[in-house]
Structures are given as C-alpha cells and as structure tokens.
TrEMBL record:
It is found in: Membrane. It is a multi-pass membrane protein. It is an enzyme of class 2 (transferase). This is methanethiol S-methyltransferase. Keywords: Membrane, Methyltransferase, S-adenosyl-L-methionine, Transferase, Transmembrane, Transmembrane helix.
Length: 269
C-alpha cells in the first residue's frame, strides 16, 4: 500500500494550529481570571478609570466587535471565502486565533464601571456562587471534549493534513450531556458569567450582553446544523435548548412509548 503524499505546507499549517491552540489556552485561562477577578492584572472589576457613559460605550463596542467576529467567521459563506486563500486545514485554527485575539482585546480594553448590584456576605452563599462559577467553566471544558476537542480547536484538521490524510467531517453526535440539553457549552458560559457573589454594573452589562449574544448564536448555529444534519430537527424537538427537563423520559422509554425501534447512537440523544 502506498503512503499518502505529504503536503509541502503540512508542517507550517500544523505549527500554526498549535500556536493558535496555545493562544486559545492562554485566553481561556485569562477569561477565568478576568470574569472571576482572580490573579490577572486587569479584570472585569478593576478600578474605574473613565466616566460611566464612556465606559459603557467602550464596553458595548468591544462586546459587539467580538460578537460580529465570532458569528461572521462561523458562517459557511465566510469559511468558503477563507479556504480560497488558506489551506482548508488551517480554516478552523484561523477562527480559533481570531476569536482568542478578539477576546484578549476585550479583556485588555475593558473599562470597569463601579457600582454594586448585589453583594452577598453570607459565607455559604458566597461559596455556593463561587462553586457555580467553577462548575460553569468545567462544563465549558467538558463539553468541548464531548463534541471533539481536537476538531473544535483545529488540531485534528491540521494533524491529518500534516499526515497527508483526508479530513472527513465529523458525524453529528449527542454524547453525554448533549442528551440533557442541546447546548451544554453555552450553559457553562451562562453559569460562569452570572454566578458571582458580587455583581457590579460592569459585570451585569457583560452578563446581559453575552446572554443576548448566546441566544442569537444558538439560532445561527442551529440553522447551520440543520442544513448539514437533517436529524438535528428531531433532536431539537426532543431535547431542551439550555434547561434540562427533569421529568423527560429517557430516549429508550420515548421510543417504546411511540412503538419505535431504539437503535440509533447518533440521531437519538
Ligand atoms: C462552541 S461549540 C458549541 C456547541 C453547542 N452549541 C454547545 O453549547 O454545547 C460550536 C460548534 O459545535 C458544533 N456542534 C453543536 N452541537 C453539536 C453536536 N451535537 N454534535 C457535534 N457538533 C456540534 C457546531 O456545529 C459548532 O461548530
């Protein structure tokens, strides 16, 4: 059997993917410190430097810029344009790098606003909210592994390209938490952005705007998923978007109730 030819740009594309992934990792860690006011030089609640109105304008601009970058670059038409100028194997890494840089810019130029919306003093309540904060970030990380961490961050595509192998798209799957809700990763973000013992005005603006963005992003993402995976329509009918339904029957019981065979790993959450 002949070994596949290795593309000339393989090592470069793989190095780019690795570098983009490292930038993402640094951004992810910084985000935990930024939102939680932990260990970073500039956080969401650093001392206010400019008047409230100016700070609000800057922050809304930063959040808007991130939303536009993140959603525009995820659209299939944009991706088609990008792979005319870049190897397809570098497309996802470019998205990861651009999203990380947009977030780092947001963290760096963010203007704290002062003002306290709520501040819990009771140690148990504070501990509980900090626990939910940590839970949110863990949920984000675990969800990336459930979908496919290496694919989500462009490493799989670059690795297969380096080896001269084809990169078939992943089949649609609904593993683990994806059987409870359709968007566990976004749910993790919601926990991470809202669970705080001290809610400031700046933090509230951040949480409100990111929540609005998540709702819009879900619509766009689901339209794209429906176009590629027709079985998503059935999945969407049966599995809640963000809030698990504790009385929902497991899939096997649903199939039995409807006298349907229960055998599909991929299409039955
Ligand atoms: C940042 S992830 C967020 C996934 C999901 N919205 C969530 O909150 O867990 C976005 C990528 O995941 C992919 N995706 C979403 N649901 C998926 C599923 N059930 N199986 C595989 N990929 C999925 C989308 O196509 C998109 O490329």
């Amino acid at each position: 059997m002949s070994t596949p030819a290795r593309p000339r740009l393989g090592p470069l594309v793989f190095a780019y993917a690795l570098a983009s992934y490292l930038v993402f990792l640094a951004t992810f860690l910084y985000a935990i410190g930024f939102v939680g006011n932990l260990l970073v030089p500039r956080s969401i609640d650093s001392p206010a430097l400019v008047p409230l109105g100016d700070a609000l304008l800057v922050n809304l601009g930063l959040l808007g810029a991130f939303a536009v970058q993140h959603s525009l670059m995820a659209r299939p038409a944009f991706k088609r344009g990008l792979v005319r100028v870049l190897p397809a194997a570098a497309e996802r890494s470019t998205y990861v790098l651009a999203s990380s840089l947009a977030l780092l810019a947001l963290f760096w130029f963010w203007q704290p606003m002062g003002g306290v919306v709520w501040d819990l003093h009771e140690p148990f309540a504070r501990g509980a909210l900090l626990g939910l904060y940590a839970f949110g970030w863990c949920l984000v990380l675990v969800s990336t592994f459930l979908i496919n961490h290496a694919d989500l961050f462009g490493l799989r595509q670059a690795w297969l390209y380096l080896r001269g192998r084809p990169c078939p798209p992943l089949a649609f799957d609904t593993p683990g938490l994806y059987r409870l809700v359709r968007h566990p990763l976004y749910l993790g973000w919601l926990f991470a952005f809202w669970a705080t013992p001290t809610m400031t005005v700046a933090h509230l603006v951040f949480a409100l705007m990111t929540t609005a963005y998540i709702v819009v992003a879900i619509q766009l993402e689901e339209n794209d998923l429906l176009a590629v995976h027709p079985e998503y329509a059935d999945y969407r009918r049966r599995v809640p978007m963000l809030i698990p339904n504790p009385v929902r029957k497991p899939p096997a019981a649903q199939a039995a109730a409807q006298h349907l065979p229960h055998d599909s790993k991929r299409t039955t959450p």
